[in-house]
Amino acid sequence: MPAQQVVDVLLPLALPGPYSYLVPKGLDVAPGDYVRVPLGPRDTIGVVWSVGRPPRPEGEGPKLRPVREKYDAPRLKEVQRRFIEWVASYNLVPPGLVLRMCLRVPAALGDPRMRMGYRYTGAEPERMTPQRARVLDIAADGLVWRASELAEAAGVTSAVIKGLVDAGALVQEHFPADRPFQQPRIQPHIGLSREQAAAAQALRAAVAERTFSVTLLDGVTGSGKTEVYCEAIAAALAADRQVLVLLPEIALTAGFIRRLEERFGTPPAEWHSALKSTERERVWRGVADGSAKIILGARSALFLPFDRLGLIVVDEEHEAAFKQEEGVTYHARDMAVAYGSLGRFPVILSSATPSLESLVNVDRGRYRHATLSARHGAARLPTIDLIDMRTTPLERGRWMSEPLVAEVVKALNEGEQALLFLNRRGYAPLTLCRACGHRLQCPNCEAWLVEHRFRRQLICHHCGFAAPVPHVCPSCNAENTLVPCGPGIERLAEEVADRFPDARTAILSSDLLRGAGLRQVFRDIADRRYDIVIGTQLVAKGHHFPGLTLVGVIDADLVLGGADPRAAERTYQLLSQVAGRAGRESLPGRAFIQTYMPDHPLMCALASGDRASFLEQEKKQREQAGMPPYGRLAALIISGRDQLETERFARELSLHIPEAKGGRVFGPSPAPIALVRGRYRYRFLVQAERDFNIQGFIAAWLSGIQARGSLRIDIDIDPYSFL
Ligand code: ADP
Ligand code: ZN
What we know:
This protein is of the alpha/beta class. Helices cover about 30% and strands about 25% of the residues. The longest helix is centred in the first third of the chain and has 15 residues, at about 195-210. The radius of gyration is 29 Å and the shape is globular. The relative contact order is 0.08. The protein binds adenosine-5'-diphosphate and zinc ion (ZN).
């Protein structure tokens, strides 16, 4: 009897590696095949990782169980399997958990959903009426029509359709329920400016090389970066490759999708958290069989089963939102670059405010640089002025300074729009008792409760805890002594309504509006149905509002401070993006920033438009401190339900820190937010030289260590959050 084959199957679970199974006779499997295999009492879907190992001799090792079934889907390609392994080893997570992100749509592995329809057989019915003739005229296209659609197109009742079936002229047939993907139209853009054309040429050349490269497309807001990288997309499509465009989830707007649709004649396949499950299935299949050509997605789109991916564009590459913070932590931009290197295709990183990481990679000669220095057409970059809040007093309970109010009045008088930016949801970030000084705090987290006046609730922004606003102080029982402190956008809206009672005002934040409602407001702003827009970072990025000429930043100093080594860089990026909303067409734009730190280098750089000198200084500081991108960081977050036990475990861990040249460990120290969702948190920070094997170091440190009970160790390679 010929020996049965053994295959190693990677399962979507937190296991150290693939499991072995026997292949039943007659079943032909190869690496990348999706299979159903038994695991304990249940079956699970996995992917064949390797084949061909002979089984162990009888009686040695555990008895292997057989593969139950192979799915009829296109194989997961070699490059994706290598990518999964790479993501797992870089981020120190089990490969099965990375595979799980590829298997989010198990239904797509089954048979495609079918629908019932009717097709013309070519036979003439014995009795012909004008109605019947109209139906057959339409059905003569040979396609399978749904009864209702055919009846509607011909303007007849369903009885007419049924009559034609009885007469043998129409026959019932099944057809796939999924709408097929249309092929994009590929034609070059003819109206590019000279600078745009040069950048587009560089990107097309990178595609033509059919090998790995990274190009940083670095152009001011409104310079036409999207137009330019669409030329590279067209080139990749012409070479019969698929293209992935990654955007931060928040920037995946209807406006952006429409632009790609206009450019390529058909909408891109979308991939993000708001998709319906049938659409998910359709996209997953279309990506796997290669019929979906342009995929526009949030970070998780990296794990779709591409048939022949040939280009990744990461738009807004500087965005911290590309970092997945929960579950498998990974940075989608960095993973995209690794993917390009494994798959030998080009990657384009696009931004008006590139990350220091990417700029330093340009300095080092690892990335190419394509720049766009001017806005398209007549549009000019906005002027930015600082309002020194140390010398400009605010009225009590008010947050807009007189100079800013005057600017808003001016804009309104001109019939132009103003955007007031405050990156704080809710009414007030803190509620305090005037009598005893008690501050209302979340019971599960070490965080203040934020008052949300529209919802009449106090909400914790870390765990979602919500409670009604109390009438008496929970600490001293005094009545009517609780007062809101500081501004949120709801409070700013109150001030705006008071100051500008006739202005049409829109308030935008993620907790107030979502989905279709939000899209409608964005359209209405673009159509100038609002005069003043009050918003959080939801409005800061990517949007194009032609009538918006004034941007006012209410509190620019919010994001500075704290343990984040990128705080200044991120503030600079955010404020440049916000200011960049102004004056995107022929009307000139102005931005005013209220700040208590007008001498801070980043404020000076914003006001003078001197990005280069800010970056030089930032680079110098990071280099001296050994911070990224000159050094490497990783964080270990130790958490548990019991404070003492968690602290003890963290201390015990510190006894096992390995000796290594080029790396050192800080901590354990209580995390800045030391309690979240009832879990106490301690942090270690590993800081190392650039060529230090930080993954190997952490693996060695944690080998043989078990987190028991409620204790947990979360590893964050290249952390972006330091809370
Ligand atoms: P960015 O992505 O750099 O912010 P966009 O690509 O969104 O810039 O371009 C800004 C605006 O200018 C958009 O409305 C875009 O359609 C328009 N635009 C840019 N370049 C051109 C061009 N060559 N021809 C026509 N319109 C252009
Ligand atoms: Zn909480």
